[in-house]
Specification:
mainly alpha; 4 helices
């Protein structure tokens, strides 16, 4: 068997193994509604941060995006979360989970 044939077989095995372990999920081109939550978030970042700034450098973009991330997660209420911030929602969810686990523990 030639070296190129062995290489082709090994590449096919690598591709098959990678695809089986880490299946690639993607949406159909031109169908953003198949991934609505991500599309909505991307639009929010674009509208409320990226389109509002002209970045002079990558470092400035990182600083401004980090400030936006903090604002988005810690200060900005979200209607879908009952007008809580994501941080408040997470905190309440974790407390509820802890209480639920405690209720299953017999004393």
């Amino acid at each position: 068997m030639s070296a190129s044939r062995i290489s082709a077989i090994l590449e096919g095995c690598r591709h098959h193994t990678t695809a089986a372990l880490f299946p690639i999920k993607s949406i159909d081109p031109g169908c953003p509604w198949q991934n609505g939550k991500d599309e909505r978030f991307n639009g929010t970042v674009r509208d409320e941060c990226l389109n509002m700034q002209l970045f002079a450098s990558v470092a400035e973009a990182r600083v401004r995006l980090e400030a936006f991330r903090r604002h988005y997660n810690d200060e900005r209420p979200h209607s879908r979360l009952g007008y809580q911030t994501p941080s408040e929602f997470k905190r309440a969810w974790l407390e509820a989970q802890a209480k639920q686990q405690d209720s299953h523990i017999s004393t």
